[in-house]
Amino acid sequence: MSTYFKSDKPRSANDPERQKLVPEHLMDIAPRPDACPMDIKTLHGLLQYAIHLELTTIPAYLTTLYSIKEGTNEASSIICRSIAVEEMLHMVMAANILNAVGGKPHITSAETVPAYPAELTKLCTPFPINLEKFSQSSISTFMEIEQPHALPKHHCDKICFESIGDFYNTISEGMKYLEAEASKRNTTIFTGNHKLQVTENEYYGAGGKLIAVYKIEDALIAISEIVGQGEGVDGSIIDPDSIFFHQDVEYAHYYRFKEIYCGRYYCEQDKPHENPNGEPFPVDWDAVHNMQLNPKLSDYKVGSELWNNTYEFNKTYMALLENIEKACTGNPKILRDGIGLMYDLKYKATALMNMPTGNLDNDGKPLMAGPTFERI
Amino acid sequence: MEEKDNLPLFSKISASLTGFSEMELWGTGMMETYYNYVMGKCGESSPTKLDLEYFFEKAKEIYLGDNNDENWIDTQIQTWIFPPTSYGGLAQLIITLWYTGNWGLGFNGSPISAQAYVQGLIWNAGETHPSGAKQPGFGSWNIPPINIKK
Fold first, then answer.
1. pLDDT tens, residue by residue, B60-118
2. Nearest to A355 among B26, B137, B148 (CB)
3. How far is A288 from chain B (nearest CA, A)?
4. What is the pLDDT of residues A38-77, one digit of tens each?
5. How far apart are the CA of A202 and the nearest CA of chain B, in angstroms?
6. Distance of residue B46 Cα from the nearest chain A Cα, in angstroms
């Protein structure tokens, strides 16, 4: 541990002290000699897909979080909440990068808002991501999403990605290549209007630091943070944010979900391939609203109570996404107004999970409605 | 009689008495808690166990009879169930329970649990929120209330 931990000041993205802490290969802005050519349109497409990818995880994580009964599973709730909040941060950072390279983020489009069960179709082996109650099944899906992978062998005829890390690495390498090509012509790909950036002034307090992107170094840090929070960096279980931002040591998402799965915290000495060896904590898989899997508005009769409540939930969800879209396309200050919508969404989701659908599960227990997170 | 037998009836009568729909009441997560509470509380003094029994008998007659007309049901509730003199004032107690989370009227009442306070219908009815328990978000006093209309 360096003396850095004693500092009270969070490090800005440009702080040389902080950059020392980022693994060097991530901060090297030079493209690899055998870099794969990419055009700016493709980069825009990949960054838009990154927004979709992050948005796909958020409803899944929130559904699981909200299904936990009030006052139970405290440790698991804290873990799920902190991860969901970090995914929101990632989504806004992906939008920041897209804005920085002259693209336009879409948050509410049909291609961006996932329908559940969802699949990340750009992955070589996609798997279903469900709106599912807190259970060993949902937590193991989340571990699969966040699973760390070694980067595959470099090659340029990729038609799909081996992992989310591979996907983001392709974006990083593409940006380096494009920026190097641009600088040969004395220009840059970072042509976006600076006013479009959502900065930490608009996004306070939660899930690490929001990085505004004005140049390639910022973009690379933002991506290393996204990947680092998810899978961990370079085979470490520790989220690099805890080093960058003077937070308590925090483990990457995969490892935190694994803590829930095992009912035990990691400790500092643990190795990535091992199960956690820290303090145990109670996990009660039964203290959960018995929500039906992947509920849909179309499950209910139009105009029925369940339909109305589900519809209102979706309206609130869309209002929130519209708010984020506006914030990411020229009105960053509006983001704060979305906070009320986020709380409202939670209360509506919890209410739905208390409403019986009239159907029973395989054990004869009543199945409850739930948030459907649909684009309407 | 099984303890849970009258839960569906309790849900129906609660909806009629509060003006909220059955699903909205289920949505609070308090339905079974309140049902069990009422079942346990009746008989301690007034209302008595007998009041409770007759209350559900009457409710069964109203809801499970041949007449499904809503106006007829409402009139029956007003005439037989609602008056404070009926069944030891059980209807009044149930309304207060749903709206405030309290058992007992006026200053004699107190919330039966922390959740009962949070889930009180007065907050929804007043389009506000239980202070300190269901926050609307930092700085939200500064922006108009959210109202998502169909």
1. 999 998 888 989 999 999 999 999 999 999 999 999 999 999 998 765 667 898 899 99
2. B26
3. 12
4. 999 999 999 999 999 999 999 999 999 999 998 899 999 9
5. 12
6. 31
Domain harbouring A88, CATH code: 1.20.1260.10
What's the CA gap between A293 and B114, in Å, rounded?
30
Q: What ipTM did this prediction achieve?
A: 0.83
- List chain A residues with CB under 8 Å of B139: 336, 339
Q: Do B135 and A343 touch (CB under 8 A)?
A: yes
Could you give the CA distance from residue A294 to residue A117 in angstroms, rounded to a whole number? 6
Q: Is residue A48 part of a domain?
A: yes
DSSP assigned state of B42: T
Spell A324-363 as b/e; 16+ CB within 10 A means b: bbbbbeebbebbbbbbbbebbbbbbbbbbbbbbbeeeeee
> Could you tell me the residue range of the domain that residue A194 belongs to?
8-289
Indicate whether A375 belongs to any domain.
Answer: no
Total domain count for chain A? 1
Report yes or no on A235 lying in a domain: yes
Give pTM, 2 decimals: 0.87
Whether A282 maps to a domain, the answer reads: yes
Residues of A in contact with B149 (CB under 8 A): 315
Contact A308 B138 (CB under 8 A): no
